[in-house]
Specification:
The protein is of the alpha/beta class and 283 residues long. It has 12 helices and 6 strands. Helix 2 (29-36) crosses helix 3 (40-47) and helix 4 runs antiparallel to helix 5. 49% of the residues lie in helices and 11% in strands. It has 2 domains: 9-80, lambda repressor-like DNA-binding domains (434 Repressor (Amino-terminal Domain), Orthogonal Bundle); 94-282, 2-Layer Sandwich (Endonuclease, Chain A), CATH 3.30.870.10. The chain has a 6-stranded mixed beta sheet, sandwiched between helices.
Length: 283
């Protein structure tokens, strides 16, 4: 079992799930160590994502913890497999790790459900729109990092045009559509890009009009990434200090309810396209 100095969010998530499984079964760390034939400190490191666990040992762990959910165990075993270098690893050390964790989360998602109030979803931003946002970061980003962030964002967007894209549903508040980041011409091109992307069969865009008033999570950027099994779903929200990843059942339930509330208020896809077209014509 190899040791890591800086586990990725996916590696930490695997450790979290193993810890949760052990706790639910009432198995002590000492007992788990004895059953696996390792010392107590390694159990702690596995559950923190610092130390890897082989798929075979993971299945033994699940057996000792009396977990009988085969689909869940298979998904965890896949997470434990030695992974090849994802494309995002090219940016390791050059960009904040949280940005790479977002790319990895998206790459493994089976469905993405997002809600944005002020910004256009990153996966749907044009280069000029994204550049304007990165140029407004305080303190200013060095030119090299700004360019790297742009390239990373463009590479992330390729999941929507790859051979097996995840289903994508984006709820965009009217306020985000009216933000003229970069000026009218950039804003118009951004809205036209949204309309083009919404024509893809696996992409659904829905507008939440200002007239609907209050809704839960107002002002918050939310990404709900569905996994191959629901217990491994992940919520990612933005904060001033970087992305946060949430995955307790209480948190997942809360944000599913929040998205459902917003969907009840949002326009249907066809009406949303007409709404976006109407704003674009005003620019």
């Amino acid at each position: 079992m190899a040791q890591r100095t800086a586990p990725t969010e996916r590696q930490k998530r695997l450790g979290y799930e193993l810890h949760k499984m052990r706790q639910a079964a009432g198995v002590s760390a000492e007992a788990a160590a004895s059953l696996l034939g390792v010392d107590r400190s390694k159990i702690s490191n596995i559950e923190r994502g610092i130390r890897a666990i082989s798929p075979d040992r993971l299945r033994s762990w699940a057996c000792y913890c009396a977990c009988s959910d085969d689909s869940y165990i298979d998904a965890l075993a896949k997470m434990a497999q030695p992974a090849g270098r994802g494309w995002w690893e090219r940016y390791r050390g050059a960009l904040p790790g949280g940005l790479l964790d977002i790319a990895e989360m998206e790459a493994h998602a089976t469905r993405l459900h997002t809600a944005h109030t002020v910004h256009i979803p990153g996966l749907l931003q044009t280069v000029d729109h994204a550049r304007t946002i990165f140029e407004a970061v305080v303190p200013h980003l060095p030119e090299r990092e700004l360019e790297l962030r742009l390239v990373l964002r463009l590479e992330r967007q390729q999941i929507l045009t790859r051979d097996d894209p995840p289903d994508y549903c984006g709820i965009i508040h009217e306020a985000a559509l009216r933000m003229q980041f970069g000026g009218p011409s950039v804003a118009r091109a951004q809205l036209e890009h949204l309309m083009n992307m919404s024509e893809l069969s696996h992409v659904t865009l829905r507008v939440l009009p200002i007239a609907h008033g209050v809704f839960p999570g107002a002002g918050q950027t939310l990404v709900y990434a569905a996994a191959v099994v629901p217990p491994l779903d992940t919520v990612q929200i933005d904060s001033t200090h970087g992305p946060e990843f949430l995955y307790s059942e209480a948190q997942l339930s809360k944000y599913r309810a929040q998205l459902a509330w917003m969907e009840r208020l949002a326009l249907e896809p066809d009406d949303s396209r007409k709404f976006i077209h109407g704003i674009a014509r005003q620019l």
